[in-house]
Amino acid sequence: MDYLLLTNDALKIVVGASIFFVWVVRYQNIVEEFKQYKLPEWLRDIVGIFKIAFAIMLQTSSAHLVMLGSAGIGTLMVAALITHIRVNTPYFKRIPAISLLLICVILFVVEYSLL
């Protein structure tokens, strides 16, 4: 059980760090991608706010907040995958969204099982 909790904590950190890196450190890439995909600026800003808020929820010790955060990020990753399919991006550009979606599903299931 300790191994499961340690792995779960590591996955939370991976998701939080990756979202921070993409939406804060490499924000200019996000700006360019949203322009390339012809998505509005207001949507980019809302998605960024939600992703950062959900990533912060993952870092808490509340199972309910972690479940909300993982479900939120998972939902956003499904939307990202739909967008990638819609604009026909190369498959390698879909890997981050798929990875974060799978990690969020794992986090949600583990947190739910701990309730």
Can you offer a commentary on this structure?
The protein is mostly helical and 115 residues long. It has one domain (2-114). Helices cover 83% and strands 0% of the residues. The protein has five helices and no strands. The protein has helices at 2-25, 27-36, 41-58, 63-86, 95-114. Helix 1 (2-25) crosses helix 2, helix 1 packs antiparallel against helix 5 and helix 3 (41-58) packs antiparallel against helix 4 (63-86). The two termini are 14 Å apart.
List the helices and strands and how they pair.
Blueprint: H1 2-25, H2 27-36, H3 41-58, H4 63-86, H5 95-114
Helix pairs in contact: 1-2, 1-3, 1-5, 3-4, 4-5
* Domain unit count: 1
Question: Approximately how much beta-strand content do the residues carry?
Answer: under 5%
- Give the termini separation: 14 Å
- Biggest β-sheet strands, sense, barrel: none
Mean pLDDT: 95
Question: Which percent bin holds the helix content?
Answer: over 70%
Strand and helix order? HHHHH
Shape: elongated
Q: Could you name the ranges where pLDDT drops below 50 across 5 or more consecutive residues?
A: none
Content-based structural category: mainly alpha
Per DSSP E runs of 2 or more residues, the count of β-strands stands at 0
Rg for CA atoms: 14 Å
Please give the count of helices: 5
